[in-house]
Amino acid sequence: VQPPGPGRAARLAVEDVALADVAAAVGTPTYVYGAGEIAARFHALARACRSHPTLIGYAVKANSSQAVLTHLARLGAGADIVSGGELRRALVAGVPADKIVFSGVGKLDAELDAAIAAGVRSINIESVEELDRVAARAHALGRVTSIALRLNPDIDPDTHPYLATGLRESKFGIAMSDAPALAARARALPDLRLVGLACHIGSQILDESPFLASFERLSGLVRALRAEGAPLRQIDLGGGMGITYAPADRELDVERLGAALTAAVAPLGLELVLEPGRYLIGSAGVLLTRVVGRKRNGERDFVIVDAAMNDLLRPALYGAYHPIVPVDVAAGERPPIRADVVGPVCECGDFLAQDRILSPAEPGELLAVLGAGAYGMAMASTYNSRPLAAEVLVHGSEFAVTRARKTVDELIADEQVPAWLTR
Ligand code: LLP
């Protein structure tokens, strides 16, 4: 998002496209992504890791827009996928199979079959049961399949409890103490090739120390497996690189992170794999919404907007903070008020901001919810029969609708009413 500057119109823009123009053409609520910001983020991370071979496998779950995926694939990103659906999306977007890693705690046989047949770079194994199942599927398909063990390094990444995935009691990964036995079992299975170790400790991490701590835990095992002759080629430290949401948030020093991780990994001679989602797309997206009305209940002021928890769940689910700014910058000069920004959904949890100091937006005016590119549209639903938001990708002074808003009749047309109810 471009703040207004000298010579720039006093209207909020993504790159050179005024958000007011997007709203006029496409309506609201609409997610607007900047292709330039996505590329800048990708290049910044790639540059930070330049001293050592690194695969940046974009975590598709953060934003699985086909346009965003295609953009990242063309920049050279791989993909971290967690389902057959994400596999299909990544392949259709042009991500080469040998740049795709398959994570996830509940992979289905049909999903494994598709990944094995596509020849993905590695399937990250989460349990002994899954190890045996992947071996059986690989055998049935007659394809020797590359796997990695996803370990649970028991590191606390100091983030929201819902976002910490590498703790001992979480459902993710294999306990470090079980890893040697699993590795031995994997190496005895002729249809599998154990090519690496993986972990993902959590999300929205703002410094390198938790990554280095999990690397330390994994590297001991790398040496032990090597000593036994395992042909390891990659170490996957997961995603989780954070972005700035609240003005007071620290900023991740990506150059420092990349330097630290590549320096740590280099002596092992393994390719580094990273699985960033939020870092690549989070700051590149805004949710554009229009004010429906204002009201006051008791001591509380409400700004009611046409985007809701079904469009952006993060505030309701995690108490997440997203800046909300007026699109008409002149509105930002009015004396601020303290208010909740809420949607029309019938839930007390339906808010985009609570107790927020903001400029008093009037009905009909536009607001932009910032930092909404990751886990915004990806977690959206049609709750309250609200069609999904539209999506727009900006490129310089051009924008393209990458997902058109559906009508309610189109939502209804996706369903069938059994004949006995209409007879
Ligand atoms: N790799 C694995 C195995 C993951 O489980 C995840 C995210 C990632 C990579 C990417 O993490 P990122 O770089 O985006 O932090 N809905 C939550 C985030 C859930 C993340 C789940 N796993 C949110 O809105 O904050």
TrEMBL record:
Residue numbers of N6-(pyridoxal phosphate)lysine PTMs: K61
Names of the cofactor(s): pyridoxal 5'-phosphate
Pathway given in the UniProt record: Amino-acid biosynthesis; L-lysine biosynthesis via DAP pathway; L-lysine from DL-2,6-diaminopimelate: step 1/1
Any Pfam family the entry gives: Orn_Arg_deC_N
Domain named Orn/DAP/Arg decarboxylase 2 N-terminal: residues: 36-281
Family matches, as InterPro entries: Ala_racemase/Decarboxylase_C, DAP_deCOOHase_LysA, De-COase2_CS, De-COase2_N, De-COase2_pyr-phos_BS, Orn/DAP/Arg_de-COase, PLP-binding_barrel
Highest taxon, organism lineage: Bacteria
Catalysed reaction, written as an equation: meso-2,6-diaminopimelate + H(+) = L-lysine + CO2
Keywords: Amino-acid biosynthesis, Decarboxylase, Lyase, Lysine biosynthesis, Pyridoxal phosphate
Binding site for substrate: R278, R314, Y318, E347, Y375
CDD domains in alphabetical order: PLPDE_III_DapDC
Root EC class: lyase
Entry EC no(s): 4.1.1.20
PROSITE patterns according to UniProt: ODR_DC_2_1 (PS00878), ODR_DC_2_2 (PS00879)
Binding sites annotated in the UniProt record for pyridoxal 5'-phosphate: G240, E275, P276, G277, R278, Y375
Gene Ontology terms for molecular function: diaminopimelate decarboxylase activity
Family: Belongs to the Orn/Lys/Arg decarboxylase class-II family. LysA subfamily.
HAMAP family: LysA (MF_02120)
Role description: Specifically catalyzes the decarboxylation of meso-diaminopimelate (meso-DAP) to L-lysine.
Subunit structure: Homodimer.
Record protein name field: Diaminopimelate decarboxylase
Organism expressing this protein natively: Nannocystis radixulma
Gene field: lysA
